[in-house]
Amino acid sequence: MTERGTVTTPTGKRARRRSLYRTVLGLAVAALLAASLPFSVLYATAVNVRQTPVTVVGAPHASSGATRVVTTASGATRVVPVTSTAPGATQSPAPITTHVS
Amino acid sequence: MGDPTHQLFWFASRAVGIVALAMLGISVAVGLVMAGKPVRRPGLPARLKHFHEAATLVTLGLIATHAGLLLFDAYLRPGIAGITLPFALAYRPVFTGLGIIGGWLAAILGLSFYLRKRIGVKTWRFMHRFTIVVYALALVHAVGSGTDGRSPWMVAMLTVLTGPIVFAFTYRVLPETARRGAVHSAAA
Question: Which of A53, A65, A82, B11 could pair with A42 as two cysteines, CB 3.0-4.6 Å apart?
Answer without folding.
Answer: B11
